[in-house]
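URGENT: need a sanity check before tomorrow's submission.

F., can you look over the Major facilitator superfamily (MFS) profile domain-containing protein record below? I want to be sure the sequence and structure line up before it goes out.
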Amino acid sequence: MELPPKDENGEETRHIEAATPNYTPHKYFFGSRGPPLVKGITLAGAIRFLLFGYDQGVFRGQYVSGLSQDFLRTFNYPDSGLLGTINAIYEIGCFAGAINVFIIGEYLGRKNCMYVGAALMLVGAALQASAYGVPQMIVGRIVCGWGNGFNTAVTPLWVSELSPAKSRGRLVSVEGNLIAGGVVVAYFFNIGMSYLPVTNPVVWRLPIAFQAVFIIAQAALLLVLPESPRWLAKHDRSEEAFDVLSQISSKDFEQGNEEAAKFKYHIDRVLALEEAEGSWSISEMFTSGPLKIRRRYMLACG
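Structure tokens as predicted:
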């Protein structure tokens, strides 16, 4: 990709490229444009982080509170060490999912990564809810965490790349705060199950299976929401990127096209600069480099 051209004074010129006449624009979120479309995107991200919190809270509540004697009996009354392992091993799956995104995420795209994550989480939830032994429960926890790693690594990026600059930080930070909301939902769900007999398997199987509601809801929303315009532009789908930018920019078609042209210019400029810098290696996470990867990495960890 070439750097943006310059005029006789050395200033960069903006090449405004609209969608080609042969391109048929998509309609997203039931034909919404502007703020309603952004709200739909934010809702999909919010569901994802509610699920993250719910996942963390629902399993812990089963054995810490002692709500279900059937749960303990099914797994042969495991000691606290084994229970802690079953709970914590979920994070191993999360780590694996995040590494997978690092390796293949740019190839798959933001939405496809989230679809993969949703499929893995559905399998993991089914394995957990139907478990009759510790090995199956552990496998279910790992698979569910694996899918969560995909989603957690990609969803904030997808939301930020589809949000207006003035509200981008607020929308992404609100979603992170919803993790606590998911934990609260899980705890109240477990409290509701406490009114059933403690020997009833529904007391623990239903809350675990309920993860599927969040997973299916987000996947269904993704079907009517756009791909990241930055990813589209990077993969030579400029017309579609322009269309998405126009629709998230404004309810008005003409105003949306005008704003989209500005955003598209900046995206192309950043991509051109990144390409001019060349590919980066994992070693730059520790030695920095022209793109300051180490600094970004440390800020994210903090």
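My own read: Confidence is low (pLDDT under 50) at residues 1-21. The CA atoms of residues 85 and 138 lie 9 Å apart. If you see anything odd, call me.
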